[in-house]
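Feature request, filed as a ticket because there's no other form

It would be nice if the structure record came with a short human-readable summary line next to the tokens. Right now we just get the raw output. Example of a typical job, pasted below so the devs can see what we mean:
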Amino acid sequence: MVLSRRRQGVCVALRWDEGQTRYHCGALVQPGLVLRDVLPAMLRPLAGVLAPVLGYLALRGIAVGTGCDCDLQVEPPIGGDAA
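Raw output as currently delivered:
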């Protein structure tokens, strides 16, 4: 909610991992990229410096290891091959 600045919808930090066929929190796995997406243009040069801070705060804030609180249901793409 904090990164997306909204109360509903998909978080802007949500990242799909094709190899593991699951979603990850981008604030944990790609904090620099997430910051470049969410920071105002003037602050984007600071993304690299702030990335470790975001990674740490995300780790603490989403309670890693206790399960996801997202109610998003993943479904195969329409017309896609089912494995």
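Something like this underneath would help us a lot:
Helices lie at 26-29, 31-38, 47-61.
The chain has a mean pLDDT of 81.
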